[in-house]
Automatic annotation (TrEMBL):
Source taxon at top rank: Bacteria
Originating organism: Dendronalium phyllosphericum CENA369
Every Glycosyl hydrolase family 13 catalytic domain range: 284-637
Enzyme Commission number(s): 2.4.1.18
Alphabetical list of InterPro entries matching this protein: A-amylase/branching_C, Branching_enzy, GH, GH13_cat_dom, GlgB, GlgB_N, GlgB_N_E_set_prok, Glyco_hydro_13_N
Oligomer and partners: Monomer.
Protein name: 1,4-alpha-glucan branching enzyme GlgB
Family to which this protein belongs: Belongs to the glycosyl hydrolase 13 family. GlgB subfamily.
Top EC class for this record: transferase
Pfam families given in the database record: Alpha-amylase, Alpha-amylase_C, CBM_48, GlgB_N
Length: 764
């Protein structure tokens, strides 16, 4: 029967892509016609010349007729039930048979999902929004859902419809979520959303919840199944769940995957002793050099980090970003590990292998701002959806980025769920939250008149603070034993205090004050250090106000700042000695540790995101020796609980003498939480050695020299104490005993009471 059952204006609303619920018109509809109950099937098929409705089970097909428009087809079918019908479509000389997406009416999101999302509390909204392989009515396909409340229309684009927004128009729900199930699509499908605002402007957007994107410069999202990988780290995760990381050694190797090493054909250089450095290649990029994949990085980076003794790797942002030069800090795909290095499963393999080798994985997370790229979150549905409309709140002009609107529940939900997503789907062990200060202050990098005060007239961003409390509370609720680290450079109180005390809920905060004091101190001529003893000691005045991580990061080796060794004064020997002295003091000082790649072998040049590290330096003995120094420093740190179990408790640290500025020497004790063990640390920050330098100690006995940063194997002058010293019954520094020590130049000594040797001597 060819009689039309629909008005022309209804057809035009579909043809002109102006209908918010195409299911009201398209698909199958029971109607009454000539006193009979029949089914009307309607389809809008751009480019089609003919079409039929196919009933496979009945082995029948019904011709459709164009009504009101040459590509809008309809037919009526006299049958009691109409299920699992298909459309046979002729386009030019080609024919195809497919299921009608508008035959699948049931929404995937429940009312409860919508309620939780609207109030900002749907912790796993990524399982509902985005693109998900699903089976509906026995038909496999992909379900698409996207939040775009201010859009007039939204369509799914892809290779499957020749990127034609007329073909797969989505249905709008009551909360502004658009959805559509498209049958017969599968993993690997490339897609975007075509979004029209009420002015008729069209925006082609990547999926905010997409699990994978095309390699740059392309920007389409890719349908991905995140549940196909078989994990092998159950033991690691269970152990983490029952472990407090604040009482454990945390030594972090910060790495940018794209510039640690590229794939190249060069052979590793030979070392003077004839051995081959396992991962070293010449850093000059060969023509056609490419990034290593996640799996290749697992084979090369993980053994390197394990050999050096680090407990964790911290990855500069690996969420998808369009521009290499942003280092990953301008994210467009918050739910997609960057495709530069491979697939989602490849990254899962990398994390799995880290855990297999007892290495935790920390990921840089950027919830503070996002770029203005047209395919990203900016002006997403033709309105300021994810960002503030007022640039005084919504833009970082210095960075050219936009600020998330933390007061909007759905935006906050996007970010909270994103933090959980990386723990849930990729088994990461921690996040380091970038640029927290930029989130907490409305006037951050803004001139007077360029920012708006909060409701109380202050400069604090109260919504951002509430968001941070929410995300940290939820992270630790789901993943006890995880790390949440704030890069926060101001005096905002209680950053690393629990949320139930009014804190922001992080469990660690980068100690930016310590970093600046140390770099200022070590960059000056040692003669002048006697006048700046406060640089060394000041951190302990405020050390217990937060749970601090001591970090010498990528930010300190770029933009004309020089690399760490280049900051050091003196001749070549003194530069290396200063580096050893700095890091020895860092590892002995209370707080967890982070250092950037290349510092471990003293790269002279600044970090260059476009090239490899200067691995060829390891052909030289002094650079090999420094790498050996870091191996043994990490080993010592991990083997001595006194150096980490009480980083944040006052009994864990006590000065022996911090006032000897004339010699630029400090000495202190670190104590273990669960035993009577302690270590004694003595630091000489000048090239002048000191013989017969006496310090007070609390117990009598033989103090073994566990570590000497001036040892010959590290390239030092090998001045020391012949393995250790016995105490004298000579009280000093308010302690009953003392040690007469030889302090090496620019050297750090770490000593420990040998209770067995002491007891044997006393018995003898």
């Amino acid at each position: 029967m060819s009689m039309t059952t629909i008005a022309p204006e209804q057809v035009n609303s579909i043809v002109w892509n102006q209908h918010s619920d195409p299911f009201e018109i398209l698909g199958s509809h029971p109607i009454e016609q000539n006193g009979q109950n029949v089914w009307a099937v309607r389809a809008y098929l751009p480019n089609a010349s003919e079409a039929w409705v196919v009933l496979p089970e009945q082995r029948q097909q019904y011709p459709m007729h164009a009504v009101h428009h040459p590509h809008f087809f309809e037919c009526t079918i006299e049958t009691a039930e109409l299920a699992n019908y298909q459309l046979r479509i002729k386009e030019g000389e080609h024919e195809r048979v497919t299921y009608d997406p508008y035959a699948f009416r049931s929404p995937r999101l429940t009312d409860f999902d919508l309620h939780l999302f609207s109030e900002g509390n749907h912790h796993r909204i990524y399982e509902k929004l985005g693109a998900h392989v699903a089976e509906v009515g026995g038909v496999k396909g992909v379900y698409f859902a996207v939040w775009a409340p201010n859009a007039r229309n939204v369509s799914v684009l892809g290779d499957f419809n020749l990127w034609d927004g007329r073909k797969h128009q989505m249905r709008r729900g009551s909360t502004g979520i658009w959805e559509l199930f498209i049958p017969e699509l599968d993993v690997g499908t490339r897609y975007k959303y075509e979004i029209k605002n009420f002015a008729g402007h069209i925006y082609e957007k990547s999926d905010p919840y997409g699990f994978q994107q095309e390699p740059r410069p392309k920007t389409a999202s890719i349908v991905t199944d995140l549940d196909a990988y078989t994990w092998n780290d159950e033991e690691w995760l269970e152990k983490r769940r029952h472990t407090d990381p604040l009482t454990q050694p945390v030594s972090v190797y910060e790495v940018h995957l794209g510039s640690w090493l590229h794939a190249a054909s060069a052979e590793p250089p030979k070392l003077p002793n004839g051995e081959t450095e396992p991962v070293v290649v010449v850093s000059e990029l060969k023509p056609g050099a490419r990034f290593l994949t996640y799996r290749e990085l697992a084979d090369r980076l993980i053994p390197y980090v394990k050999d050096l003794g680090y407990t964790h790797v911290e990855l500069l942002p690996i969420a998808e970003h369009p521009f290499d030069g942003s280092w990953g800090y301008q994210v467009t795909g918050y739910y997609a590990p960057t495709s530069r290095f491979g697939s989602a499963e490849d990254f899962m393999y990398f994390v799995d292998q880290c855990h297999k080798n007892d290495i935790g994985v920390i990921v840089d997370w950027v919830p503070g701002h996002f770029p203005k790229d047209g395919h990203g979150l900016a002006f997403f549905d033709g309105s300021h959806l994810y960002e503030h409309a007022d640039p005084r709140k919504g833009e970082h002009k210095e960075w050219g980025t936009l600020v998330f609107n933390y007061s909007r529940h759905e935006v906050r939900n996007f970010l909270v769920a994103n933090a959980l997503f990386w723990f849930d789907k990729y088994h990461i062990d921690g996040v380091r939250v970038d640029a927290v200060a930029s989130m907490l202050y409305n006037d951050y990098c803004r001139e007077p008149g360029e920012w708006l005060p909060n409701q109380y007239g202050g400069r604090e961003n109260l919504e951002a603070a509430d968001f941070l409390r929410q995300v940290n509370h939820i992270i630790f609720s789901y993943f006890p034993g995880a790390l949440s680290i704030a890069e926060e450079s101001t005096s905002w109180p209680m950053v690393s205090w629990p949320t139930y005390t009014g804190g922001l809920g992080f469990n660690l905060k980068w100690n930016m004050g310590w970093m600046h004091d140390m770099l200022d101190y070590f960059s000056m001529d040692p003669w002048f250090r006697q006048f700046h003893q406060n640089n060394i000691t000041f951190s302990m005045w405020y050390n217990h106000s937060e749970n601090f991580m001591l970090a010498l990061s990528h930010d300190e080796v770029v933009h004309g700042k020089s690399n760490i060794i280049g900051k050091m004064p003196g001749d070549r020997w003194q530069k290396f000695a200063n580096v050893r002295c700095l890091f020895s003091y860092m590892f002995a000082h209370p707080g967890k540790k982070t250092m950037f790649m290349s510092m471990e072998f003293a790269q002279w040049s600044e970090w260059n995101v476009w090239a490899d590290l200067d691995w060829q330096l390891l052909q030289h003995e002094s650079h090999q020796q420094l790498k050996k120094f870091f191996q043994e420093l990490n080993h010592l740190y991990r083997s001595e609980p006194a150096l980490y179990t009480q980083d944040f408790a006052e009994p864990g640290f006590e000065w022996i003498d911090c006032s000897d500025n004339r010699h630029s020497v400090v000495s202190f004790i670190r104590r273990d939480k669960d035993s009577e063990d302690f270590v004694v640390v003595v630091c000489n920050f000048t090239p002048q050695p000191h013989s017969h330098y006496r310090i007070g100690v609390p117990e009598h006995g033989f103090y073994t020299e566990l570590f000497n940063s001036d040892a010959r194997q590290y390239g030092g002058s090998n001045m020391g104490n012949l393995g250790g010293k016995w105490t004298d019954r000579w009280s000093l520094h308010s302690r009953p005993y003392s040690l007469d020590l030889c302090l090496p130049p620019l050297g750090v000594l770490i000593l420990k009471l040998d209770k067995i040797k002491t007891a044997e001597a006393l018995e003898g």
